[in-house]
Amino acid sequence: MFDLSYTEEQMALAKTARDFARDKILPEAARLDEEERFPEEILKQAWELGLMNCEVPEAYGGLGLSCLEHCLILEEIAWACAGVNTSLAANSLATLPLLIAGTEEQKKHYLGWLVREPIFAAYCCSEPEAGSDVAGIRTYYRKDGDGFVLTGQKRWITNGGYASWYTVLATSDPTPERDLKARHRKIACFVVERDLPGVKVGRKEHKMGQRASNTTDVLFDEVRLPRTALIGREGEGFKIAMKTFDRSRPWIAASAAGIIARALQEARAYALERKTFGVPIAQHQAVQFMLADMAIAYEATRLLCHKAAWMVDQGRLDSVVSSMAKCYGADMAMKVTTDAVQILGGYGYTKDYPVEKLMRDAKLLQIYEGTSQIQRMVIARNLLSETT
To answer: Please, what is the Cα angle at 32 between 167 and 355, to 5 degrees?
Structure first.
Protein backbone atom coordinates (compact mmCIF):
# COMPACT_ATOMS: atom_id res chain seq x y z
CA MET A 1 0.00 0.00 0.00
CA PHE A 2 1.23 3.47 -0.89
CA ASP A 3 2.62 5.01 2.31
CA LEU A 4 3.22 8.75 2.71
CA SER A 5 5.29 8.49 5.89
CA TYR A 6 9.03 9.14 5.73
CA THR A 7 11.75 7.57 7.83
CA GLU A 8 14.10 9.58 10.00
CA GLU A 9 16.87 8.76 7.54
CA GLN A 10 14.84 10.13 4.62
CA MET A 11 14.03 13.33 6.50
CA ALA A 12 17.71 13.75 7.38
CA LEU A 13 18.62 13.22 3.73
CA ALA A 14 16.16 15.91 2.65
CA LYS A 15 17.62 18.28 5.25
CA THR A 16 21.13 17.66 3.98
CA ALA A 17 19.99 18.53 0.45
CA ARG A 18 18.02 21.54 1.74
CA ASP A 19 20.99 22.95 3.63
CA PHE A 20 23.28 22.41 0.65
CA ALA A 21 20.80 24.11 -1.69
CA ARG A 22 20.45 27.16 0.53
CA ASP A 23 24.10 27.50 1.55
CA LYS A 24 25.93 26.57 -1.66
CA ILE A 25 23.57 26.90 -4.63
CA LEU A 26 21.21 29.77 -3.85
CA PRO A 27 23.95 32.43 -3.43
CA GLU A 28 25.35 31.50 -6.87
CA ALA A 29 22.15 30.81 -8.80
CA ALA A 30 21.61 34.25 -10.36
CA ARG A 31 25.25 34.54 -11.43
CA LEU A 32 25.31 31.05 -12.93
CA ASP A 33 22.15 31.89 -14.88
CA GLU A 34 23.44 35.25 -16.08
CA GLU A 35 26.82 33.88 -17.18
CA GLU A 36 25.49 30.53 -18.46
CA ARG A 37 28.15 28.92 -16.33
CA PHE A 38 28.26 25.19 -15.69
CA PRO A 39 28.29 24.69 -11.88
CA GLU A 40 31.22 22.29 -11.88
CA GLU A 41 32.52 23.10 -8.40
CA ILE A 42 29.06 23.01 -6.85
CA LEU A 43 28.40 19.63 -8.43
CA LYS A 44 31.68 18.28 -7.12
CA GLN A 45 30.64 19.37 -3.64
CA ALA A 46 27.30 17.63 -4.17
CA TRP A 47 29.22 14.51 -5.21
CA GLU A 48 31.24 14.61 -1.98
CA LEU A 49 27.99 14.74 0.03
CA GLY A 50 26.50 11.81 -1.85
CA LEU A 51 23.84 13.94 -3.56
CA MET A 52 24.94 12.86 -7.06
CA ASN A 53 24.66 9.38 -8.58
CA CYS A 54 22.68 8.47 -5.48
CA GLU A 55 20.73 5.59 -7.06
CA VAL A 56 23.89 3.69 -7.98
CA PRO A 57 23.52 0.38 -6.09
CA GLU A 58 25.79 -0.42 -3.17
CA ALA A 59 27.18 -3.37 -5.16
CA TYR A 60 28.94 -0.85 -7.42
CA GLY A 61 30.06 1.50 -4.66
CA GLY A 62 27.01 3.78 -4.56
CA LEU A 63 24.55 4.65 -1.82
CA GLY A 64 21.76 2.64 -3.39
CA LEU A 65 19.10 5.23 -2.58
CA SER A 66 15.54 4.71 -3.77
CA CYS A 67 13.82 6.73 -6.47
CA LEU A 68 11.72 8.38 -3.75
CA GLU A 69 14.81 9.39 -1.80
CA HIS A 70 16.34 10.75 -4.99
CA CYS A 71 13.19 12.83 -5.54
CA LEU A 72 13.49 14.28 -2.04
CA ILE A 73 16.99 15.48 -2.97
CA LEU A 74 15.99 16.86 -6.36
CA GLU A 75 13.10 18.89 -4.99
CA GLU A 76 15.42 20.71 -2.60
CA ILE A 77 18.07 21.35 -5.27
CA ALA A 78 15.48 22.61 -7.78
CA TRP A 79 14.15 25.01 -5.13
CA ALA A 80 17.49 26.81 -5.34
CA CYS A 81 18.25 26.43 -9.07
CA ALA A 82 16.65 24.20 -11.67
CA GLY A 83 19.69 24.45 -13.92
CA VAL A 84 21.98 23.02 -11.25
CA ASN A 85 19.37 20.38 -10.53
CA THR A 86 19.18 19.28 -14.18
CA SER A 87 22.98 19.05 -14.36
CA LEU A 88 23.01 16.88 -11.26
CA ALA A 89 20.17 14.63 -12.41
CA ALA A 90 21.69 14.16 -15.89
CA ASN A 91 24.36 11.89 -14.40
CA SER A 92 21.68 9.59 -13.06
CA LEU A 93 19.80 9.69 -16.36
CA ALA A 94 22.89 8.39 -18.14
CA THR A 95 23.11 5.48 -15.72
CA LEU A 96 19.56 4.21 -16.23
CA PRO A 97 20.17 2.22 -19.46
CA LEU A 98 23.01 0.46 -17.66
CA LEU A 99 20.87 -0.25 -14.59
CA ILE A 100 18.06 -1.52 -16.82
CA ALA A 101 20.01 -3.69 -19.28
CA GLY A 102 23.74 -3.42 -18.66
CA THR A 103 26.08 -6.33 -17.99
CA GLU A 104 27.84 -6.74 -14.66
CA GLU A 105 31.09 -5.68 -16.28
CA GLN A 106 29.49 -2.50 -17.69
CA LYS A 107 27.94 -1.62 -14.35
CA LYS A 108 31.12 -2.20 -12.40
CA HIS A 109 33.15 -0.08 -14.80
CA TYR A 110 30.87 2.87 -15.56
CA LEU A 111 28.80 3.10 -12.39
CA GLY A 112 31.91 2.48 -10.33
CA TRP A 113 33.67 5.27 -12.22
CA LEU A 114 30.95 7.74 -11.23
CA VAL A 115 31.30 7.01 -7.53
CA ARG A 116 35.12 6.88 -7.55
CA GLU A 117 35.60 10.25 -9.25
CA PRO A 118 33.49 13.42 -9.54
CA ILE A 119 32.99 12.98 -13.28
CA PHE A 120 29.94 13.66 -15.44
CA ALA A 121 27.94 11.50 -17.81
CA ALA A 122 25.20 12.19 -20.38
CA TYR A 123 22.27 10.43 -22.04
CA CYS A 124 22.20 10.90 -25.82
CA CYS A 125 18.74 10.38 -27.23
CA SER A 126 17.45 13.58 -28.90
CA GLU A 127 18.52 14.66 -32.39
CA PRO A 128 17.83 17.59 -34.72
CA GLU A 129 14.93 15.62 -36.25
CA ALA A 130 13.97 13.44 -33.29
CA GLY A 131 12.94 14.66 -29.86
CA SER A 132 9.90 13.06 -28.28
CA ASP A 133 9.75 10.72 -31.32
CA VAL A 134 12.54 8.43 -30.17
CA ALA A 135 11.92 5.99 -33.03
CA GLY A 136 12.78 8.76 -35.51
CA ILE A 137 16.49 8.89 -34.64
CA ARG A 138 18.99 8.92 -37.52
CA THR A 139 22.24 8.29 -35.65
CA TYR A 140 23.18 4.91 -37.01
CA TYR A 141 25.51 2.03 -36.34
CA ARG A 142 26.82 -0.81 -38.43
CA LYS A 143 28.56 -3.99 -37.47
CA ASP A 144 32.29 -4.11 -38.08
CA GLY A 145 33.93 -7.42 -37.32
CA ASP A 146 33.23 -8.19 -33.68
CA GLY A 147 32.33 -4.56 -32.93
CA PHE A 148 30.37 -1.59 -34.26
CA VAL A 149 30.89 1.76 -35.97
CA LEU A 150 28.73 4.66 -34.80
CA THR A 151 27.92 7.82 -36.80
CA GLY A 152 25.47 10.65 -36.17
CA GLN A 153 24.54 13.83 -34.37
CA LYS A 154 22.82 14.21 -31.02
CA ARG A 155 21.28 17.50 -29.90
CA TRP A 156 20.16 19.08 -26.60
CA ILE A 157 22.41 16.80 -24.60
CA THR A 158 22.61 17.84 -20.95
CA ASN A 159 26.20 17.65 -19.61
CA GLY A 160 27.25 17.02 -23.21
CA GLY A 161 30.33 19.22 -23.03
CA TYR A 162 31.56 17.83 -19.70
CA ALA A 163 30.68 14.14 -19.84
CA SER A 164 33.37 11.48 -19.63
CA TRP A 165 31.01 8.91 -21.15
CA TYR A 166 27.64 8.77 -22.87
CA THR A 167 24.80 6.30 -23.22
CA VAL A 168 23.72 6.58 -26.85
CA LEU A 169 20.70 5.40 -28.84
CA ALA A 170 21.32 4.53 -32.49
CA THR A 171 19.55 2.68 -35.31
CA SER A 172 20.83 0.11 -37.74
CA ASP A 173 18.57 1.60 -40.45
CA PRO A 174 18.35 5.42 -40.67
CA THR A 175 15.82 5.33 -43.54
CA PRO A 176 13.00 7.68 -42.45
CA GLU A 177 10.35 5.96 -44.60
CA ARG A 178 10.42 2.67 -42.69
CA ASP A 179 7.25 1.82 -40.74
CA LEU A 180 7.01 2.56 -37.03
CA LYS A 181 7.28 -1.01 -35.76
CA ALA A 182 10.29 -1.61 -37.96
CA ARG A 183 11.92 1.57 -36.64
CA HIS A 184 11.43 0.40 -33.04
CA ARG A 185 13.10 -2.94 -33.76
CA LYS A 186 16.19 -1.36 -35.34
CA ILE A 187 17.34 0.65 -32.32
CA ALA A 188 20.21 -0.31 -30.02
CA CYS A 189 21.85 1.35 -27.03
CA PHE A 190 25.60 1.82 -26.50
CA VAL A 191 27.94 3.22 -23.89
CA VAL A 192 30.55 5.46 -25.50
CA GLU A 193 33.59 7.00 -23.85
CA ARG A 194 34.36 10.64 -24.57
CA ASP A 195 38.01 10.12 -25.52
CA LEU A 196 37.37 7.64 -28.34
CA PRO A 197 38.48 8.86 -31.79
CA GLY A 198 35.58 10.47 -33.65
CA VAL A 199 33.66 11.65 -30.57
CA LYS A 200 33.28 15.43 -30.60
CA VAL A 201 31.31 18.02 -28.69
CA GLY A 202 29.40 20.37 -30.98
CA ARG A 203 27.78 23.72 -30.42
CA LYS A 204 26.55 24.85 -27.03
CA GLU A 205 22.90 25.90 -26.83
CA HIS A 206 22.05 29.35 -25.43
CA LYS A 207 18.78 28.72 -23.66
CA MET A 208 15.90 30.77 -22.30
CA GLY A 209 16.09 29.08 -18.90
CA GLN A 210 18.09 26.54 -16.91
CA ARG A 211 21.11 28.33 -18.28
CA ALA A 212 23.49 26.86 -15.70
CA SER A 213 23.06 23.44 -17.30
CA ASN A 214 25.42 22.62 -20.15
CA THR A 215 23.47 21.66 -23.28
CA THR A 216 25.37 20.76 -26.45
CA ASP A 217 25.44 18.72 -29.61
CA VAL A 218 27.47 15.52 -29.41
CA LEU A 219 28.88 14.23 -32.70
CA PHE A 220 29.95 10.69 -33.59
CA ASP A 221 32.08 10.37 -36.70
CA GLU A 222 32.84 6.74 -37.56
CA VAL A 223 33.39 5.93 -33.88
CA ARG A 224 34.62 2.36 -33.47
CA LEU A 225 33.08 0.53 -30.53
CA PRO A 226 33.93 -2.88 -29.08
CA ARG A 227 31.22 -5.50 -28.72
CA THR A 228 31.20 -4.77 -24.99
CA ALA A 229 29.84 -1.27 -25.67
CA LEU A 230 26.39 -2.67 -26.56
CA ILE A 231 23.87 -2.31 -23.72
CA GLY A 232 21.39 -5.18 -23.80
CA ARG A 233 20.86 -6.67 -27.24
CA GLU A 234 20.43 -5.19 -30.68
CA GLY A 235 16.81 -4.21 -31.21
CA GLU A 236 16.20 -3.52 -27.51
CA GLY A 237 17.17 0.15 -27.60
CA PHE A 238 13.65 1.53 -27.90
CA LYS A 239 12.43 -0.60 -24.99
CA ILE A 240 15.41 0.54 -22.90
CA ALA A 241 14.65 4.18 -23.74
CA MET A 242 11.00 3.86 -22.70
CA LYS A 243 11.92 2.18 -19.42
CA THR A 244 14.50 4.90 -18.85
CA PHE A 245 11.86 7.61 -19.18
CA ASP A 246 9.41 5.74 -16.97
CA ARG A 247 12.05 5.73 -14.25
CA SER A 248 13.25 9.30 -14.74
CA ARG A 249 9.94 11.17 -15.08
CA PRO A 250 9.34 11.24 -11.31
CA TRP A 251 12.56 13.24 -11.10
CA ILE A 252 11.05 15.90 -13.37
CA ALA A 253 8.00 16.06 -11.13
CA ALA A 254 10.31 16.51 -8.14
CA SER A 255 12.01 19.40 -9.93
CA ALA A 256 8.60 20.91 -10.60
CA ALA A 257 7.69 20.62 -6.92
CA GLY A 258 10.86 22.48 -5.96
CA ILE A 259 10.20 25.28 -8.44
CA ILE A 260 6.57 25.58 -7.32
CA ALA A 261 7.57 25.71 -3.65
CA ARG A 262 10.07 28.50 -4.32
CA ALA A 263 7.61 30.51 -6.44
CA LEU A 264 4.96 30.24 -3.75
CA GLN A 265 7.44 31.32 -1.09
CA GLU A 266 8.55 34.37 -3.08
CA ALA A 267 4.99 35.37 -4.04
CA ARG A 268 3.67 34.97 -0.49
CA ALA A 269 6.47 37.07 1.01
CA TYR A 270 5.92 39.85 -1.53
CA ALA A 271 2.14 39.79 -1.11
CA LEU A 272 2.46 40.27 2.64
CA GLU A 273 4.79 43.23 2.18
CA ARG A 274 3.52 45.08 -0.90
CA LYS A 275 0.65 47.50 -0.27
CA THR A 276 -1.99 48.84 -2.63
CA PHE A 277 -5.00 50.91 -1.70
CA GLY A 278 -3.65 51.12 1.84
CA VAL A 279 -3.42 47.39 2.59
CA PRO A 280 -1.03 44.51 1.75
CA ILE A 281 -2.02 42.89 -1.54
CA ALA A 282 -2.32 39.62 0.37
CA GLN A 283 -5.61 40.97 1.69
CA HIS A 284 -7.09 41.17 -1.81
CA GLN A 285 -9.13 38.10 -2.65
CA ALA A 286 -7.77 37.91 -6.20
CA VAL A 287 -4.25 37.48 -4.86
CA GLN A 288 -5.38 35.10 -2.13
CA PHE A 289 -6.94 32.79 -4.71
CA MET A 290 -3.72 32.76 -6.74
CA LEU A 291 -1.68 31.86 -3.67
CA ALA A 292 -4.17 29.14 -2.73
CA ASP A 293 -3.95 27.63 -6.20
CA MET A 294 -0.15 27.62 -5.89
CA ALA A 295 -0.35 25.72 -2.62
CA ILE A 296 -2.76 23.19 -4.14
CA ALA A 297 -0.45 22.73 -7.13
CA TYR A 298 2.52 22.06 -4.85
CA GLU A 299 0.75 19.44 -2.77
CA ALA A 300 -0.77 17.68 -5.79
CA THR A 301 2.53 17.67 -7.72
CA ARG A 302 4.41 16.28 -4.74
CA LEU A 303 1.81 13.54 -4.19
CA LEU A 304 1.92 12.44 -7.83
CA CYS A 305 5.70 12.57 -7.81
CA HIS A 306 6.01 10.44 -4.71
CA LYS A 307 3.45 7.93 -5.91
CA ALA A 308 5.31 7.52 -9.20
CA ALA A 309 8.62 7.19 -7.37
CA TRP A 310 7.14 4.70 -4.90
CA MET A 311 5.90 2.55 -7.78
CA VAL A 312 9.40 2.56 -9.30
CA ASP A 313 10.78 1.41 -5.95
CA GLN A 314 8.17 -1.35 -5.77
CA GLY A 315 9.29 -2.65 -9.16
CA ARG A 316 5.97 -1.63 -10.68
CA LEU A 317 7.01 0.68 -13.52
CA ASP A 318 3.88 2.45 -14.69
CA SER A 319 4.08 4.67 -17.77
CA VAL A 320 0.74 6.33 -17.02
CA VAL A 321 1.53 7.33 -13.44
CA SER A 322 4.99 8.62 -14.38
CA SER A 323 3.48 10.54 -17.31
CA MET A 324 0.80 12.05 -15.05
CA ALA A 325 3.41 13.14 -12.53
CA LYS A 326 5.64 14.77 -15.14
CA CYS A 327 2.82 16.34 -17.15
CA TYR A 328 0.89 17.76 -14.20
CA GLY A 329 4.02 18.91 -12.39
CA ALA A 330 5.49 20.61 -15.46
CA ASP A 331 2.25 22.37 -16.38
CA MET A 332 1.67 23.52 -12.81
CA ALA A 333 5.25 24.78 -12.48
CA MET A 334 4.67 26.92 -15.57
CA LYS A 335 1.33 28.22 -14.29
CA VAL A 336 2.54 28.89 -10.76
CA THR A 337 5.68 30.74 -11.85
CA THR A 338 3.64 32.82 -14.32
CA ASP A 339 1.24 33.72 -11.52
CA ALA A 340 4.16 34.56 -9.25
CA VAL A 341 5.43 37.04 -11.83
CA GLN A 342 1.92 38.48 -12.01
CA ILE A 343 1.70 38.93 -8.25
CA LEU A 344 5.01 40.77 -8.20
CA GLY A 345 3.90 42.91 -11.13
CA GLY A 346 6.62 45.06 -12.64
CA TYR A 347 9.14 43.82 -10.11
CA GLY A 348 8.42 40.25 -11.14
CA TYR A 349 9.43 41.07 -14.69
CA THR A 350 12.91 42.21 -13.65
CA LYS A 351 16.01 40.30 -12.64
CA ASP A 352 15.99 42.02 -9.25
CA TYR A 353 13.57 39.32 -8.10
CA PRO A 354 13.98 35.57 -8.72
CA VAL A 355 10.51 34.80 -10.07
CA GLU A 356 11.37 35.69 -13.67
CA LYS A 357 14.15 33.09 -13.55
CA LEU A 358 11.77 30.55 -12.04
CA MET A 359 9.35 31.17 -14.92
CA ARG A 360 12.09 30.71 -17.53
CA ASP A 361 13.38 27.59 -15.81
CA ALA A 362 9.92 26.04 -15.51
CA LYS A 363 9.26 26.11 -19.25
CA LEU A 364 11.80 23.41 -20.00
CA LEU A 365 9.94 20.94 -17.80
CA GLN A 366 7.13 20.93 -20.36
CA ILE A 367 9.56 20.05 -23.15
CA TYR A 368 12.37 17.68 -22.22
CA GLU A 369 12.02 13.93 -21.63
CA GLY A 370 8.77 13.96 -23.59
CA THR A 371 6.63 17.06 -23.99
CA SER A 372 3.43 17.58 -22.03
CA GLN A 373 1.52 16.70 -25.18
CA ILE A 374 3.36 13.37 -25.47
CA GLN A 375 2.53 12.60 -21.84
CA ARG A 376 -1.14 13.21 -22.58
CA MET A 377 -0.93 10.87 -25.56
CA VAL A 378 0.48 8.14 -23.32
CA ILE A 379 -2.26 8.68 -20.75
CA ALA A 380 -5.07 8.87 -23.31
CA ARG A 381 -3.97 5.77 -25.22
CA ASN A 382 -3.93 3.83 -21.99
CA LEU A 383 -7.41 5.04 -21.08
CA LEU A 384 -8.82 4.18 -24.48
CA SER A 385 -7.23 0.75 -24.56
CA GLU A 386 -8.76 -0.31 -21.25
CA THR A 387 -11.59 -2.82 -21.45
CA THR A 388 -14.73 -2.11 -19.47
So the answer is: 105
* Cα angle for residues 106, 112, 113 (degrees, 5° grid): 95
Q: What is the DSSP letter of 219?
A: E
Q: Which residues neighbour 372 within 8 Å (Cβ) at sequence distance 6 or greater?
A: 326, 327, 330, 331, 366
Closest CA relative to residue 339, chosen from 288, 388, 276: 288
Look up residue 96 and give its amino acid. Answer: L
* pLDDT tops 50 at residue 188: yes
3-class secondary-structure state, position 206: coil
Q: Is the Cβ–Cβ distance between 254 and 203 less than 8 Å?
A: no
Q: Nearest 10 degrees: CA dihedral of 255, 260, 262, 267?
A: 160
pLDDT at residue 178, as a whole number: 62
Mean pLDDT of the chain: 95
Per-residue pLDDT tens for 237-295? 999 999 999 999 999 999 999 999 999 999 999 999 999 999 999 999 999 999 999 99
User: Do 37 and 212 meet the contact criterion of CB atoms below 8 Å apart?
Assistant: yes
Contacts of 341 (CB under 8 A, 6+ apart): 348, 349, 355, 356, 359
Q: Tell me the catalytic residues.
A: 369
Terminal CA-CA length for the chain: 25
Q: How far is CA 109 from CA 115, 128, 157, 233, in A?
A: 10, 31, 22, 19
Q: How confident is the model at residue 177 (pLDDT cuts 50, 70, 90)?
A: low
Q: What letter would DSSP give residue 205?
A: P
Nearest to 134 by CA among 347, 346, 316, 371: 371
Average pLDDT over every residue of 362-381: 95
